[in-house]
Design goal:
- This protein folds into three domains: 254 residues, Rossmann fold (3-Layer(aba) Sandwich), CATH 3.40.50.740; 218 residues, Dimethylsulfoxide Reductase, domain 2, CATH 3.40.228; 120 residues, Barwin-like endoglucanases (Beta Barrel).
- The chain has 775 residues and is α/β, with parallel strands linked by helices.
- The protein is built from 31 helices and 31 strands.
- It binds ligand MGD (2 copies) and molybdenum atom.
- The site of one ligand MGD has 32 residues, from helix 10, helix 19, strand 24 and strand 25.
- One ligand MGD binds next to helix 24 and strand 16.
- It holds the Pfam family Molybdopterin.
Length: 775
Amino acid sequence: MKQQNRNIGIAPYGGSAGGWGALKAVADALRRQMSFKQDVIALFKVNQPQGFDCPGCAWPDPRHTSSFEFCENGAKAVSWEATSKRTTPEFFAAHTVSELWQRNAFELEGEGRLTHPMKYDAASDTYQPIAWETAFAEIGALLRGYDDPDSVEFYTSGRASNEAAFLWQLFAREYGTNNFPDCSNMCHEPTSVGLPESIGVGKGTIELEDFDHCDLVLCIGHNPGTNHPRMLATLREVAKRGATIVAINPLRERGLERFTSPQSPIEMLSMSSTQLASTYYKVRVGGDAAMLKGVMKILLTMHEEALRSGAAPVLDEAFIDEHTEGFAALKQDLENTDWAHILKVSGMDRAEIQNIARLYANAKNTIICYGMGITQHQYGTQNVQQIANLLLLRGNIGRKGAGICPLRGHSNVQGDRTVGITEIPPQSLLDSIENVFGFTPPQKHGHGAVAAIQAIQQGRSQALLCLGGNLAEAISDPNVTFAALRKLDLVVHMATKLNRSHLLMAKHSYLLPVLGRTEIDQQATGEQSVTVEDSMSMVHASRGTLPPASPHLKSEPALVAGLAKATLPDSRVNWDKMIGDYNNIRDAIEAVFPAFENFNQRVMQPGGFRLRNAASEREWLTASGRAQFKVMEGINEDPRSLHCHDLVLTTLRSHDQYNTTLYGLNDRYRGVSGRRDVLFISADEAEKRQLRVGDTVNMIALDPQGERTERRLDNLTIVVYDMAPGSVAAYYPEANVLVPLDSHDTRSGIPAYKSIPVLLEPSVATHAESSGALR
Ligand SMILES: Nc1nc2c(c(=O)[nH]1)N[C@H]1C(S)=C(S)[C@@H](COP(=O)(O)OP(=O)(O)OC[C@H]3O[C@@H](n4cnc5c(=O)[nH]c(N)nc54)[C@H](O)[C@@H]3O)O[C@H]1N2
Ligand SMILES: Nc1nc2c(c(=O)[nH]1)N[C@H]1C(S)=C(S)[C@@H](COP(=O)(O)OP(=O)(O)OC[C@H]3O[C@@H](n4cnc5c(=O)[nH]c(N)nc54)[C@H](O)[C@@H]3O)O[C@H]1N2
Ligand SMILES: [Mo]
């Protein structure tokens, strides 16, 4: 059973996050992608008051950014977009779509920026150039030909600016549908659904400055060293101030432990680092609600003891009385939850949970940050609401230095929602659109991402228009999804680079190239800016500085307007006026959404402005006007975890990846290089199965009853990693084959990408003679 060299590229990483390794990675990325002159200009303008918003992540910029904020993965995102490589008509002529299908994501996007509008020709199995006007006319005619507007899906990925997204929803609603599948449905939908019920707004409540005033930051289920690297600078300040950071994550992530700031000459030259999290708790995958309930259960006990002994109360009773409802029900639920379950499902010791509760009880101001480790579960919405409960117990919402901080994904995913990308539009939005534009938008709720794929699969939807993204690869169940998309009548992709979604051919398929954030957007009245909203409700302008990758590109707003004009000859919207000067789009946004009062004026201030967030002022926009303690439904925890399948798989991003975009094959901080075919497992779990680093296994998905399914991922190489019991981890999107389309949160519809019960079997390569599961 000996292995030959299967452990190549696997070696523990001993350094801190950031530091020289990050600088080297940037230099490598730049060398591969762009010419020197461009990179200096482009990077210098990232997240500067006059520059463009970094397409990397939605972490906010310090107010009035004066110095260049270095970020490795931001630099990779910029250089990936500003590359000098091109995917031209000649390239498409030389390669059939079937041939391109054989390439991996890295190779497809690695060809560089799309340069011309293209249309698929089935006879030659190639994409061929088409004139913009012809493409618009053909797509418009097809869209006009469908009897039911609800058979068309309008997908949005979160890079679209406020201006593009606003026009997109206006076009779709005038066309007659609320079908808005978007990347948010796969990302922070549990936040958008759960938080309005709890605190009346579906967003985070803090501002960046709150980190200057907190005593405790709990980081649950997010990996900032990779996904929000600029957050490390904030955490570093928090740690240096002596405030406490606690990480709760099944995997030990270097970015939460130690950081060498490239901005600090001392740390760089002395090769030293700042310790971030003081304590690191390895919760079992899917065990967060159990852990949170355990913490709250202890707080209740501590509170009662304090009252008995005359010590200071642990819960903020005045806040609970004045501002909340549902405390009695929560208390009841916590009393009914037994410790055996909590410990089994969370995979933690009672002492660990007690320690978190103590830290929390002793902190005056607490911020809880969370990411996909919380949301992408069958019970994602309830997970989010348990976090809100914990904060409400000590009045930690709506005051300085305290609050909830969902780490948003794409750089404008939050803004897209704010300006109307939602399949469940509130009546106020529909009324506003009618008042401002004079057409009656559809009332019927539309499809989110999973529902859209299901509608396509069942033949109820026949057209899919994608404003960016890579829906087919991002969503669960690629086998079902790929087959479904190939049955479409019409597919239109608006994109910067070639990806797998573009190779799933419908009867009529168009691939239309767009300007990226980094590029100059020239319209009738001159160069235009767009706007974006970050994770903390700050809206600011973004203006590209580089010449467009090709003279044939259209900006996203102009492209959407072109489609709308060709589809809706009697449109009530003056599309040309909107496009001629984006100030007109912003005026329209302001007319529809009163929160954008004086939009054009306020967004020109350096750093932009903050959208009002009622919960941060303790105004609760819930039905009763109070914040709500929400009890988690059903039995106490995620019933799937409660079965306590031996192993639950979570799917992760590597350090060299932006969602489905692969910049490279390394995952530096987790000690993996040059490969992605790995499975992370703890030493104990590996030992139990007699597995060692470099062994290969096949992974089979189980159904909720624990029965084997047909879904499998073969020949994964074992990486023994410091992580929670009962948990394994593999990379997204490769592991999406293990997630059935109907495995999602019933409340928000988010696919359960991070709680997949699995079993391991020896792969033939390693254990030819043995069979049977490695339970
Ligand atoms: N460079 C880069 N930046 C990005 C992205 C990118 O791909 N690359 N993607 C962007 C997008 S769209 C998003 S949504 C964000 C994503 O940012 P994150 O939320 O950080 O995303 P993930 O990598 O999916 O994983 C999050 C963390 O959750 C942990 N985790 C997994 N399962 C569980 C669990 O059950 N419980 C707990 N407590 N933790 C768990 C994992 O170990 C991992 O550390 O980043 C954005 N920024
Ligand atoms: N298993 C598993 N699956 C997941 C996740 C997970 O953690 N695990 N995470 C989920 C999450 S959080 C998200 S957000 C989704 C991501 O889903 P998407 O947002 O659909 O996917 P991306 O990979 O970000 O899209 C990349 C493509 O966007 C296009 N693009 C890049 N920049 C621009 C631009 O400026 N304009 C336009 N028009 N196009 C552009 C390029 O063509 C590129 O190929 O995936 C989800 N899927
Ligand atoms: Mo995301």
